C-alpha cells in the first residue's frame, strides 16, 4: 500500500471487472445514504458549491456560446448547471443513484443515464460540447479509463470542468465519518499524467479547500451555510490555496501538517 499512500499509484485503477463491480455496488447509493448538511440543503434546492464552480470553472467559459450537448458526471439533481442553464440545449447526467435524480432544473429537462459498471460511456464520439465532473471521479475505481472515455465523447474545442480532491482523504481501508466506503482522492501526478496522455490542454488550474474543514467547524454555529458556500470565502481560499500549493502531500496522518489545498480545479479543452 506504500505506493498508493505516497500518491505514486491510484488505488483501484487497475482493478479487475469483478472488483470494479463490487466497488460500484457499494458506491451506487453510498453518497445518498450519508447524513450530511449538504444533502439536507440540496433537498431545499440549495447547492453549496455554486460559488466554487463559478469562480474556478464557469467564469472561464465563452459567455457568448450556447452548448448543444452537455454531460454532467454524477451531477445528481443538476443544480450545478444553474449558472449556465440558459446556454444549454440538451442536458445529460450520468448518475448511479436513483434517490438523487430530479426531473428538471428550472425548465430544462434532464436526460438521465445509468453508468456502465466498467466505466464505458454510452455516447458516440465527439458528442459533447461541455462535460463537468465535480468531486465524482474519486468515487470511481478505474478513473483513468473514465477520463479517456470523457475525452472520447467530447468534440474538438469542447471544455471539461474537473474538480477533485488531491489528498487521500484518510485511510480508505477504515470507516471514515462523512465519507463513503471506497472514495479516495486522486493524486495530482496521476491527474496530470492522465491529462497529458490525452488531447487536453489546460486552460486554467486553480487550487481550493485549504483548511476548509477547520473554518467550517469554527463557523458552523454562526453561519447558516458552510463557509465554503460563500463567495468572499471562496475568493480568500483561492489565494490561500495558491500560496500553499507547494506543500501538497497526498497522505498524512498528522492533521496539524495538513496546511495545503485539498482539491484542484481544472478547466480543460480538447484539442
Within the CATH hierarchy, at the fold level, what is the topology? Rossmann fold
What structural class should be given to the helix and strand makeup? alpha/beta
Strand order of the largest sheet: 3-4-2-1-5-6-8-7
Number of E-type strands: 8
Backbone shape: globular
Return the average pLDDT rounded to an integer.
Answer: 92
**Which homologous superfamily in CATH is the superfamily?**
Vaccinia Virus protein VP39
DSSP helix count?
8
Instruction: Note the run of SSEs as H and E.
Output: HHHHEEEEEHEHEHHE
| Amino- and carboxy-terminal Cα gap | 36 Å
Low-confidence stretches: none
Report the top-level CATH class: Alpha Beta
Name of the CATH architecture: 3-Layer(aba) Sandwich
Per DSSP, what share of the residues sits in E-state strands of 2 or more residues?
Answer: 15-25%
- Into which percent range does the helicity of residues fall? 25-40%
Q: Main beta sheet: strand number and arrangement?
A: 8 strands, mixed
Amino acid at each position: 500500500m506504500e505506493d498508493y499512500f505516497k500518491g505514486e499509484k491510484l488505488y483501484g485503477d487497475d482493478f479487475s471487472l469483478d472488483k470494479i463491480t463490487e466497488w460500484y455496488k457499494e458506491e451506487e447509493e453510498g453518497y445518498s445514504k450519508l447524513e450530511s448538511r449538504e444533502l439536507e440543503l440540496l433537498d431545499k434546492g440549495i447547492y453549496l458549491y455554486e460559488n466554487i464552480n463559478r469562480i474556478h470553472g464557469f467564469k472561464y467559459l465563452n459567455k457568448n456560446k450556447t452548448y448543444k450537448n452537455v454531460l454532467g458526471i454524477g451531477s445528481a439533481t443538476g443544480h450545478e448547471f444553474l449558472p449556465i442553464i440558459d446556454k444549454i440545449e440538451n442536458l445529460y447526467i450520468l448518475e448511479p443513484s436513483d434517490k438523487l435524480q430530479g426531473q428538471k432544473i428550472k425548465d430544462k429537462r434532464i436526460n438521465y443515464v445509468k453508468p456502465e459498471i466498467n466505466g464505458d460511456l454510452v455516447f458516440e464520439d465527439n458528442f459533447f460540447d461541455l462535460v463537468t465532473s465535480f468531486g465524482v471521479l474519486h468515487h470511481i475505481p478505474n478513473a483513468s479509463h473514465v477520463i479517456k472515455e470523457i475525452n472520447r465523447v467530447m468534440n474538438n474545442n469542447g471544455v471539461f470542468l474537473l474538480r477533485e480532491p488531491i489528498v487521500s482523504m484518510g485511510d480508505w481501508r477504515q470507516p471514515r465519518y462523512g465519507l463513503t466506503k471506497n472514495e479516495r482522492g486522486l493524486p495530482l501526478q496521476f491527474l496530470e499524467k492522465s491529462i497529458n496522455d490525452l488531447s487536453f490542454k489546460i486552460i486554467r488550474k486553480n487550487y481550493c479547500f485549504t483548511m476548509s474543514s477547520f473554518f467550517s467547524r469554527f463557523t458552523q454555529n454562526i453561519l447558516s451555510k458552510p463557509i465554503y458556500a460563500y463567495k468572499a470565502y471562496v475568493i480568500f481560499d483561492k489565494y490561500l490555496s495558491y500560496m500553499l500549493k507547494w506543500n501538497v502531500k497526498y497522505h498524512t496522518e498528522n492533521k496539524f501538517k495538513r496546511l495545503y489545498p485539498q482539491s484542484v480545479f481544472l478547466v480543460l479543452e480538447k484539442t
